[in-house]
Amino acid sequence: MTTIPDAREQFLQIAQTIQRAFPREARLIRNLVGEALKRRQCTPRVRRQTAKPMSPDLAEQLKAAAEANPKKPLRDVGVANRVDGARVHETLYGKRR
């Protein structure tokens, strides 16, 4: 198995080998190696958004909203209260209290 640094070196050797016969292609290979096969800086991860903790008040709000709008999808009920639709389902059907 070839690693990216090894592949980078192999491409540069190929570019050097074909330099005289195909200068345009060799330059293209070197440009691609310079852009595509370089080590990028590690970027910090974005903090995940956390849902509101389930409280009795929030559970009541979800139940009231779902009962007031029976045709509205649970996902939409959850979005209005910053809760996932699955948590709305769990609240309505007894898994969360």
Description of the structure:
The chain is mainly α. The protein folds into two domains: 4-36, no CATH class; 56-92. The chain is built from five helices and no strands. Helix 1 runs antiparallel to helix 2 (23-36) and helix 4 packs across helix 5. The protein is rod-shaped and about 75 Å long. The two termini are 53 Å apart.
Taking all Cα atoms into account, the compactness measure Rg is 28 Å
Structural class: mainly alpha
How many domain regions?
Answer: 2
* Integer average pLDDT: 86
User: Can you count the helices?
Assistant: 5
Number of extended strands: 0
- What letter string, H or E per element, gives the SSE order? HHHHH
The proportion of residues forming helix, as a percent range, comes to 55-70%
Low-pLDDT runs: none
What proportion strand? Answer: under 5%
First-residue to last-residue Cα separation: 53 Å
Quick rundown:
The chain has 97 residues and is mainly α.
Jot down its keywords.
mainly alpha, 2 domains, 58% helix, 97 residues, 0% strand
Give the topology.
Blueprint: H1 4-17, H2 23-36, H3 56-68, H4 74-80, H5 85-92
Helix pairs in contact: 1-2, 4-5
